[in-house]
Here is the input.
Amino acid sequence: MCAFPGCRAALTAEASGADRVAALGEMAHIVGESPNGPCGGSPLTRAERERYENLFLLCGHHHELVVGTARGLARVRISPPG
Here is the structure.
């Protein structure tokens, strides 16, 4: 499911052809991929920025919203469930 609060969009679906499952989600970085890019202000190393723990999946709609937020269009807080 999409990691955006309140969104319940599925991120996989049955596929046709040789693929068993189609991935519909879009990956996003919690701390920016580049120290000079959006959300990049962190002491994390390049390797730490690419770790699984620094990634989350969103539906296409919320990925665009979060990317826009990172570019300064708005502020959205993504928190872990629970």
